Amino acid sequence: MRQIYNPYLPLGVYIPDGEPHLFDGRVYVYGSHDAVDARVYCPGDYNVWSAPAEDLTSWRDEGTSYLRRQDPTNAQNRMQLWAPDVTRGPDGKYYLYYCFPFYPEIGVAVSASPAGPFEFHGHVRYADGRTLKEFMPFDPAVLTDDDGRVYLYYGFCPAEEKEMLLPEFTEEGIEQMPEDKREMVRGLREIHLGENSMVAELEPDMLTLKYTPKSLIPGGHHTKGTGFEGHGFFEASSIRKIRGRYYFVYSSHKSHELCYAVSDRPDGGFRYGGIIISNGDVSYRGQTRPTYTLSNNHGGIVEVNGNFYIFYHRATAGSEFSRQGCAEKITLRPDGGIDQVEMTSCGLNPGPLKADGLYPAAICCHMTCPGTMAHIDYNDPINLRNTRITEERNEMFVTDIMDGTVLGYKYFDYAEPDRLLLEMRGDFRGEVQIAQDAEGTRELGRLPVRIQSDLWHLDGAALTPFRGCGALFLRFAGEGRLQLKTIGFRQP
Predict the structure, then answer these.
(1) Per-residue burial over 67-87, b = 16 or more CB atoms within 10 Å of its CB, e = otherwise
(2) Are 215 and 198 in contact (CB under 8 A)?
């Protein structure tokens, strides 16, 4: 039987900001396009991936759907395409909404197919022809309601924790920055930043605003007394209609968490609902320290065959610019609420992964070391000091494993495997404790490690027999640095 794990796309594919939509029996994911060695967000053109609704383990690359230079504003191909969204319009065509880095404009492209390719359609504008520039046109989301009315959502509000990251740079200082950063920083300095998320209705042409956009939910400094305290709007607008209610998913000012708000109407009255997922499991069951390298977050909800899933992304390569898409099953309570879910390795798999055979070490959903930070360091967005997942010559592995590193995998279906296999290389003397919990209290075995080699070496340790669903944690102690490419189980 085919299995799938997180990240749900091939390990060399970097599609963050994933917005999943079900069209005609297939789930299509629309996201931006990162790279393993990127130094900016989203350097690639848009690529669409899809899977049949009856089998979310089988994803297909639909190819490049829209090129950066297709928008006349970016004819010189200098700006990156940031997080998009797609809706099927009242006319049956598919409309792609997107933005460039802090450029005050929302572009629209159109296609007869949900997979694209899309062709430039225009820019969101007022009835008098003026382009929408106000309130930071950023991270657009779009909803075609059951009555055919179309709503646009967007916004950017870097309040509270983010304010320290947006200093007033002098022109002289900007000129000293790398060229690929100058345009973004100038944009941050010059544009009018939004204070809340925004919403407006569109005319049937999918471009023209029916009215001036209005506030939807509050941002950081505007949350007092609203119920959004501590989880105000930051970015990453996403909208769905589920069972007659409107769910607005967004990234809070904490950046690593996706929260939701709910209303009985599409353009107002939203109440804070809670956290759906943090890409460091912060707040899950009282967790206060991140269990994975934190990064920004963006994603959306999709319903497939009566099941609900949240799509989100994780940091890879220790970088804010190398993010990979993940997904988890969520549950809607009878009252319409959503409980926070944890990051897992099994993701879209119908159940836990089988504790049999080999798996990439890069599917870990828990990754900590002594230097793991409790915040996102935007002044050092590419952290090459700590344990991290990286890619080299089309191989993906965990690197800079050190004394105190803990790697976790959730969940496996154990049928009493008798041996755990680890494929390693590096310069390390110590041992690996194998357990079912991060603290190591439920030990399954130990493996002494004495390795000094640039070649991959497969070693194994006897396991205490165990049957049932459980996690796998590897706790490293010793001297030196280690890389891990593969984990595996041997059945007796």
Answers:
(1) bbebbeebeeeebbbbbbbbb
(2) yes
CB atoms within 10 A of CB 285: 7
Cis peptide before 218 (omega within 30 of 0): no
The band of 492, judged by pLDDT with boundaries at 50, 70 and 90, is confident
- Distances in Å between the Cα of 45 and the Cα atoms of 31, 101, 105, 107 are 10, 14, 18, 14
Q: Which amino acid is it at 310? A: I
Task: Supply 426's token pair.
Answer: 């590096």
230: left (phi over 0), alpha (psi -120 to 50) or beta: left
Taking phi first (over 0 means left), then psi (-120 to 50 degrees means alpha), and beta for anything else, what does residue 286 get? left
Could you count the other beta carbons within 10 Å of the beta carbon of residue 103?
A: 20
- For 264, the token pair is 């009985």
Rounded-to-integer distance, Cα 489 and Cα 419, Å: 6
- CB-CB contact of 322 with 310 (8 Å): no
- CB distance 231 to 259 below 8 Å: yes
Looking at 284-382, which runs of residues are DSSP E strands?
301-304, 307-316, 319-330, 353-354, 357-360, 366-368
Instruction: Tell me the pLDDT tens digit for each residue of 340-364.
Output: 999 999 999 999 999 999 999 999 9
**Nearest alpha-carbon partner for 329 in 343, 315, 313, 314:** 343
Task: Supply the pTM of this predicted model.
Answer: 0.93
Q: Tell me whether residue 168 is one of the annotated catalytic residues.
A: no
Over residues 294-305, the pLDDT tens digits come to 999 999 999 999
Catalytic member of 71, 235, 400, 423: 235
Sheet holding 257-263, edge to edge: 233-242, 245-252, 257-263, 271-278
Any catalytic annotation for residue 17? Answer: yes
Catalytic residue of the set 17, 34, 62, 195 = 17
Q: How far apart are CA 451 and CA 443, in angstroms?
A: 23
- pLDDT tens figures, 182-232: 665 565 554 445 568 999 999 999 999 999 999 999 987 789 999 999 999
User: In Å, what is the CA distance from 293 to each residue of 327, 346, 386, 388?
Assistant: 17, 19, 9, 8
